[in-house]
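QA checklist item 7 of 12: single-chain prediction sanity check.
[x] sequence parsed
[x] length recorded as 282
[x] structure emitted
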Amino acid sequence: MADALDVARAFFVAVNAGDPDAVAEFYHPRCHVEHTFPGHDVIEGRDQARAAWHVEFTTTTGALPDGQRYHVTRVAGLETGWGWARVSWTRRTRAGAADGHDDPATGYSDFWIEDGLILRHRTVVRREATRSPASRAASGDALRVERPRVGVGAVVVSEAGQVLLVKRQNEPLAGQWSLPGGMLELGETLEAGVAREILEETGLHVEVGPLVEVFDRILLDDQGGVRHHLVLVDYVCRVRGGVLLAATDVDAAIWADPAALAPYRLTEKAQAVIRNALRLLQ
């Protein structure tokens, strides 16, 4: 399954390419699209969405650099669930010929995504091209955290090929299974932070191997403010000692078969990181 935030990013890449068939493939056959196209409050179904995008692409052109329509400024999850994605953007389109009227706007799009397909797509448009910090605060977009935090995580692989999972005590992902890891401390290298977090959470000493992936995770509250902004750096690791236990910040720690992860309801991103880590070890 595809990660919801990655699907949302890729959707706007397809929109900027101006291909209605490629854009339509992101939608579920029974999708529900709200307030996205002029003159249509709601559009139902992939075929209708494809037709609407075809009209959009044939009647307007992108007026941003390189002919793009959208510049994505933020991709975030919503506290209502990890299947929801919110993409904030600026948009500039031009009707008709090159000297036609420009239509600048800012806004955001909310997506409900399951199994890599968009079930619901809702667009909110603000017609001003830019907004002051005061207006962002008034609309609920003010940042609730001072700055991004760096997190480190690991796909720890046993000699038998199992992967280490922990059940989280705290947000984000409280009560859910995930990969072990935590926040980097001041003056600490990434590799040292990974080893420390694994030891603190699970009692295991690990050898930190290759970098798997670097990505960000932004979680918004119901007012649109940033509740969490994490930059996550994941490594693949091997166990070098210790005894497995549930220690700091986790309720449980287990070894799991990477071919049978469905009962743990990991996020799509965690599953993708595991797959990428295992490929590095082949």
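[x] summary fact logged: The first helix runs from residue 4 to 17.
[ ] second reviewer sign-off
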